[in-house]
UniProtKB/TrEMBL annotation:
Pathway: Metabolic intermediate biosynthesis; chorismate biosynthesis; chorismate from D-erythrose 4-phosphate and phosphoenolpyruvate: step 2/7. It catalyses: 7-phospho-2-dehydro-3-deoxy-D-arabino-heptonate = 3-dehydroquinate + phosphate. One of its GO terms (molecular function) is 3-dehydroquinate synthase activity. Residues 68-180 form the 3-dehydroquinate synthase N-terminal domain. It comes from Croceicoccus marinus. Pfam families: DHQ_synthase (PF01761), DHQS_C (PF24621). It is found in: Cytoplasm. This is 3-dehydroquinate synthase. It is an enzyme of class 4 (lyase). InterPro entries: Dehydroquinate_synthase (IPR050071), DHQ_synth_AroB (IPR016037), DHQ_synth_fam (IPR030963), DHQS/DOIS_N (IPR030960), DHQS_C (IPR056179). Coiled coil: none annotated.
Length: 368
């Protein structure tokens, strides 16, 4: 097992990466679980996989799990399910010093994290990420949120977990499409500032996706180390450093909003396509070599992932997609800071991007 600390003054915590962590949940959480009853929020895919092992570990420690099982999928990150989680936690008599367990992918982590940020003005929670995406990204760093009709993550809070347990063994049951979606956020760390890690992905991505647990553990550890460094430097995305983690997301969130949150386009799939678009837009501005951008698209294609906009069969134009970007949380007094690339591993935040130009670029990409 490896442990990655997230160094935040007064709110620091560990991310443990290893196998067997979930079946050992009571010991792993230790004193964070203060009461005999332990509220756990999860989804309908994950519950049958882990309920027995977690119940057994808690029972051996004299505790009893209290489960809330929500529908699986992005549509659960909404107002109605936020209300359901809050009502459940209130009915369970949760106090501010308690820790709620969030077991599942990024949807359960973001939703439960947000509920715990507002419950009694803030109680504790532990992230138990079971998808690759949640292990490498969403469980770390304290961004919590729900979606609204206007777009992704528009209602939320920064609320750090007290502990993250990334059990690599959990990934064995993850469907291949979900693995690939999570893999996009792994590749992101290479594209931001670590060209050697991108090359590692090119060399090892296929074996990782095929099931190699050592490679999965290495990818999770290296991703979490990268994210922890950024979060420690700029927890609340105020200096521009944390915005780097948004590479591919301005395009990606616009694609997700256009597709709806019905599973047509998964978050990680949108981010993969968004990073290809950010790279090609950087080329169009004369700031990145075309061969670098095509190397990124080629890697996603080689991993059996969609990299081209026409593969989404959208019926909208570039302007419609660009209009979704007006809801981007980086929007600042009428301008949208945009994550672009000068090369692989050289992401930067541009402040001179005009959405009219982005709309024209998207029309070109839609017609490719
Ligand atoms: N907070 C952040 O910093 C951050 C970062 C990245 C993404 N996100 C958010 O995370 C969400 C996407 O997360 P996700 O990709 O994990 O989606 P998800 O939570 O929907 O999980 C993906 C699917 O895999 C299933 N699943 C999860 N673990 C499984 C397992 N071990 N075995 C079998 N099935 C399993 C889930 O039930 C679901 O159907 C998006 O809402 C995105 O906006 C947040
Ligand atoms: O942790 C961050 O910061 C990120 O941007 C990570 C992203 O992968 C994640 O999708 C995040 O939820 C997007 O944040 P948002 O502020 O654009 O909603
Ligand atoms: Zn993301």
């Amino acid at each position: 097992m490896s442990t990655v600390p997230v160094a935040l003054a007064g709110r620091g915590y560990d991310v443990r990466v290893g196998s067997g962590l979930l079946a050992d949940i009571a010991a792993q959480c230790g004193p964070l679980l203060r009461k005999p009853a332990v509220p756990i929020v999860t989804d309908a895919h994950v519950a049958p996989l882990w309920q027995d092992a977690i119940d057994a570990s808690l029972a051996a420690a004299g505790k009893r799990a209290r489960w809330l099982v929500l529908p699986a999928g992005e549509a659960t990150k909404d107002w109605a399910h936020l209300e359901e989680v809050c009502d459940f936690l209130l009915a369970e008599g949760v106090d501010r010093g308690d820790h709620i367990l969030a077991l599942g992918g990024g949807v359960i982590g973001d939703l439960t994290g947000f509920a715990t940020s507002v419950l009694k003005r803030g109680c504790g929670f532990v992230q138990l990420p079971t998808s690759l995406l949640a292990q490498v990204d969403s469980s770390v760093g304290g961004k919590t949120a729900i979606n609204t009709r206007a777009g992704k993550n528009l209602i939320g809070a920064f609320h750090q977990p007290a502990l993250v347990l990334a059990d690599i063994g959990a990934l064995a049951t993850l469907p291949p499409r979900e693995l690939r979606a999570g893999y996009a956020e792994v590749v992101k760390y290479g594209l931001i500032d670590d060209p050697a890690f991108f090359a590692w992905c090119e060399a090892n991505g296929a074996a990782l996706l095929a099931g190699d647990e050592d490679l999965r553990a290495e990818a999770v550890r290296r991703s979490v180390e990268a994210k922890a460094r950024v979060v420690a430097a700029d927890e609340r995305e105020t200096t521009g450093t944390r915005a780097l983690l948004n590479l591919g997301h301005t395009f990606g969130h616009a694609l997700e909003a256009e597709c709806g949150y019905d599973g047509t386009l998964l978050h990680g799939e949108a981010v993969a396509m968004g990073m290809v678009l950010a790279a090609r837009y950087s080329v169009r501005r004369g700031e990145m070599a075309g061969q670098d951008a095509e190397r990124i698209a080629a890697h996603f294609r080689a991993m059996d992932m969609r990299a081209e906009l026409p593969q989404l069969n959208l019926s909208c134009d570039g302007r419609t997609l660009a209009n979704h970007m007006l809801h981007d949380k980086k929007m600042d007094a009428g301008t949208l800071p945009f994550l672009l690339m000068r090369g692989i591993g050289q992401a930067w935040l541009a402040k001179d991007v005009a959405l009219d130009d982005v709309a024209r670029f998207l029309d070109e990409q839609l017609a490719r």
